[in-house]
Each structure stands twice: as structure tokens, then as C-alpha cells.
């Protein structure tokens, strides 16, 4: 399993516009083969922060989605990003 997780930072006044712009990308990702979860969500305490979380069955599924043509919305500028890919070797109940 592959997890993509981290944060994006945009101007607080642009966050809602950014999230509205990626709504179609989210819909398409969730319909894509191998997508287990996909969300970009507003942080409830930090008006400039967007949390990114994706789960994919494999690198192949992730790359198939990223390489496919899809919506290219015009989005507000991302001021910074700290997003990483994690390879998960096991899953357990909490």
C-alpha cells in the first residue's frame, strides 16, 4: 500500500477557492482503479493549511492516475508544500 500525506499552504483568503478547484480531481481519484482514499481538506485551526491524504493499492495505480489526462483547474498559488510518499508493509487494527 502507498500513502501520500502532508500539507499544502495557500493564502487564507484563497483556501476555499483552491479546495473547490480540486473537487473534480478528488472525484476522479476516488473512481480510479486502486484508489483506497483521496482527500484534500481544510485544517480546522489553521486557515492557510490544507491536509493531503491519499491511499493507493500500488505505485502502478498511483502513477496510472497521475499520468492520465484529467481536469487542470486554475488554482490559487501554493505557498509551500510538504507532502511525502510512504510505503506500508503491514496494517493492523489500532
Short key terms for the protein model shown above:
94 residues; alpha+beta; Alpha-Beta Plaits; 4-stranded antiparallel β-sheet; 3 helices; 4 strands; 27% helix; globular
β-sheet strand percentage:
25-35%
What is the general shape?
Answer: globular
Category by helix and strand content: alpha+beta
Average pLDDT rating:
94
Q: Under the CATH scheme, which architecture would be assigned?
A: 2-Layer Sandwich
How many H/I helical runs? 3
What is the CATH domain class? Answer: Alpha Beta
Helix content, binned percent: 25-40%
Describe the structure.
This protein is of the alpha+beta class and 94 residues long. The protein has one domain: Alpha-Beta Plaits. Helix content is 27%, strand content 34%. It contains three helices and four strands; from the N terminus they run E-H-H-E-E-H-E. A four-stranded antiparallel beta sheet has the order 2-3-1-4. The mean pLDDT is 94.
Summarize the structure.
The protein is of the alpha+beta class and 94 residues long.
What layout of secondary structure does this protein have?
Layout: E1 2-9, H1 15-21, H2 23-31, E2 35-42, E3 49-56, H3 59-67, E4 80-87
Antiparallel strand pairs: 1-3, 1-4, 2-3
Amino acid at each position: 500500500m502507498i500513502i501520500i500525506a502532508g500539507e499544502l499552504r495557500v493564502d487564507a483568503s484563497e483556501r476555499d477557492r483552491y479546495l473547490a478547484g480540486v473537487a473534480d480531481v478528488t472525484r476522479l481519484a476516488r473512481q480510479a482503479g486502486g484508489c483506497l482514499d483521496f482527500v484534500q481538506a481544510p485544517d480546522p485551526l489553521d486557515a492557510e493549511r490544507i491536509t493531503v491524504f491519499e491511499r493507493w493499492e500500488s505505485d502502478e495505480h498511483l502513477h496510472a492516475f497521475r499520468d492520465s489526462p484529467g481536469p487542470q483547474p486554475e488554482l490559487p498559488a501554493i505557498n509551500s508544500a510538504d507532502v511525502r510518499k510512504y510505503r506500508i508493509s503491514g496494517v493492523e487494527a489500532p
